[in-house]
Structures are given as C-alpha cells and as structure tokens.
Write a structure and sequence with these properties.
Blueprint: H1 3-9, H2 34-41, E1 46-56, E2 62-71, E3 78-81, E4 83-86, H3 93-105, E5 121-125, E6 139-147, E7 158-164, H4 166-169, H5 172-176, H6 182-192
Parallel strand pairs: 1-6
Antiparallel strand pairs: 1-2, 1-4, 2-3, 2-7, 5-6
Organism: Nocardioides terrae
Protein name: ADP-ribose pyrophosphatase YjhB, NUDIX family
Biased composition (Acidic residues): 1-12
C-alpha cells in the first residue's frame, strides 16, 4: 500500500511536507535565528553530519586522510576537524552531506557520496565532559567516509586541509589536536574504511 493510498483509506489529505507559512523572519528555509538556535540546543539534540575525506588507491585502499584546520567555535583555538555541520529542517541527509563537503572543501573536491545514507558511525556529543563533548549542545552526528578525487580548496571557516597517511592520522598528537574527543571518532571511521 502506498502512502497516498494509506492517507486516502483513512480519509486524510496527502501528507506532503510543506514549509510553514511563518519562517520566523529567516530568509532561508531550515535556518534558525541565533535565539531560536540557542533555545533549541537547550531542549533537543541537534542532528549533524560529519565526513572524513579520503583519497583512495585504484584498488580502493585508503591512501590518505584529509583533516581540516579551523578555529574552534567554542574555544577559539586552532584545531583539526572533520567536515561537519548541521542538518537543516526538511533537508535530506545526502543533501546536507554534499552541502557541507562543498562548503568546507570547495566546489572542485568532487566527493563520491556513498550509495547508502547509512552512516559509517553514529557519534553522540554531550554538553558535559564525556567521551565525545560539545559544550554548546547535545548533538547526534551521522559520520561518513567520503572519497574525494578533485582539488580541495578549503573555504568558509576551514583554513586548510592536511593530507595524512592513515598511520599518521591516528597518532596521539593528531587526536590531541581534535576537539571534543573527535580523535576517537576518526579512529572509528578509519577502522570502518579498513585503513587500520
């Protein structure tokens, strides 16, 4: 039975998703004002996507791992990070992933998105000290390993991308440069990719 038939059978109108009439003054659907974002972060977990950009050999083995260098929004320090960002209301996971890859790596990175949007890992960040930590919020992140074949030109708040061998990427010094325990997530993604 299709969803349309399900709705008709029970006398309901088609349940197509529509934007609300009032977007609370925002100019783009899905964006929250600073006040709305702060209030929402205090009440519900936020959904994020994270991606580990990799370059692969012709046989599919991971040759190098890309880590971004950026200023931390919480500490102001320069840290290493994965590609990451919020999923907007009404946005598909695949679209959010592509948006953040392009935002952080530039339009010529040519990422190869996974066929399935089942993540390689799910990370849960808490606003109190824990294995994975984000002092701003409780967040759930769907993490992916994404091969890129083009030239990466970091933009927005990403300062540069550093390509490391899989062995270099999991060194303690690198993990220590990653905020909020993301070094553990990096290691988990590397295992998923068969790079360790």
């Amino acid at each position: 039975m299709t969803m349309e038939a399900f709705g008709e059978e029970f006398g309901e109108e088609s349940s197509r998703w529509q934007l609300p009439e009032d977007l609370s003054g925002t100019t783009e659907p899905g964006w929250l004002s600073e006040g709305e974002l702060a209030e929402t972060r205090g009440r519900v977990p936020m959904l994020y996507v994270e991606a580990l950009p990799v370059r692969v050999e012709p046989d599919g083995r991971v040759a190098s791992v890309g880590l971004l260098l950026r200023g931390s929004p919480t500490t102001g320090r320069i840290t290493r990070s994965l590609v990451s960002g919020r999923v907007l209301h009404g946005e598909r996971i695949r679209d959010a992933l592509m948006r953040h890859l392009e935002k952080d790596l530039g339009p010529t990175a040519f990422p190869v998105l996974p066929v399935s949007t089942v993540p390689a890992a799910v990370a849960e960040y808490f606003p109190w000290p824990d294995r994975l930590h984000d002092p701003r919020q409780h967040a759930v992140s769907l993490a992916f390993v994404v091969p890129v074949s083009g030239e990466c030109q970091p933009r927005q708040d990403a300062l540069e991308i550093t390509w490391l061998t899989p062995e270099e990427a999991v060194e303690e010094a690198i993990a220590a440069d990653m905020e909020g325990g993301r070094g553990a997530l990096l290691r988990q993604l590397m295992h998923h990719a068969g790079a360790l």
